[in-house]
């Protein structure tokens, strides 16, 4: 008879220590609340999260705290990205969105 209550046999101690953070970030990026930012931010995160370092994940977490209207305006190019907010990760997101044709090009 199979014991369904035993601990999993796979060794999870070798799992990437950032894997759980990456999974949470993908979920949060795809469930922002507005359709546009879900697509833009979620698509960017899904495409890049696998190679993000701990510092880059910290930067993405900070971006995820920003309000949707501001992010949408910056990603679509309706407003310029303020220098005080222009982290390397946010600059990369803006460039990726523009490369996909989101918003106006400069």
User: What would you call the structural class?
Assistant: mainly alpha
Helix content: 40-55%
Strand content: under 5%
Broad shape:
globular
Order of helices and strands: HHHHH
Low-confidence stretches: 6-13
Quick check: average pLDDT? 84
List keywords for this structure.
106 residues; mainly alpha; 55% helix; globular
Walk me through the topology.
Elements: H1 19-30, H2 35-48, H3 54-64, H4 68-76, H5 88-99
Could you explain the architecture of this structure?
This protein has five helices and no strands. It has 106 residues and is mainly alpha-helical. It is globular, with a radius of gyration of 17 Å.
Outline:
The protein is mainly alpha-helical and 106 residues long. The protein contains 5 helices and no strands.
